[in-house]
Give the backbone structure.
Amino acid sequence: MIVNTEKCIGCGKCRVYCPVGAIRVENRKAVIDQDLCTECANCRRAAICPKDALEKAELTWPRVVRSQMSDVTTVYKGVNGRGTEEMKTNDVTGRFKKGYAGIAVELGRPQVSSTLRDLEKIAMVAARHGAEFEECNPVTSFIVDKATGKVNPEILDERVISGIIEVAVPIERLQENVEAIIAAADQLDTVFSLDVVCINNEDGTNDAKEILDRAGIWYRPNAKNNVGLGHLN
């Protein structure tokens, strides 16, 4: 995003609409920190500027990645937003299989953000522990070597509001993956949330829950369920 200084009157109304705090007012003009800006366009979409002085810049590679990952109106790789349609027990797509657990790691949040370099660190941890990357996830398209989790080096310093690593692991490797991801927290310059999903067994038990319980790993038993309403068999 850029500021049309001929229009800007320096009112500062746009500042609170930047989710990463990249806008300030200097010499009675709004200024956007281009290193912090994630190109989410939230400031412009809020339509708060009385002079319409906030404008989208023409983005080229690799900066265009910021918009692809942060602007919620952007559809990239068939996905609107930062991850797939959500990690969930999904009876329609059958995304998760017996004997596997899904793991999602969302790095960054509004006011914090993340670089792709931090996403690479988690991707490399997951790759070392036998994870399979979700092909429908936008971040996966940036991984140039799925065996190592290495991300395209051209975009490592691009900043996004958040990004999600989504993988599947054999259920017997769930604990080592979760513990390795938690241990990697000290290497990161952002915050992250860690999600685990696993379909229930026919008797209602859940293998992932039992593994996390035995390992003493605390979690909140949240769930998002798609029961396939409207799906024709």
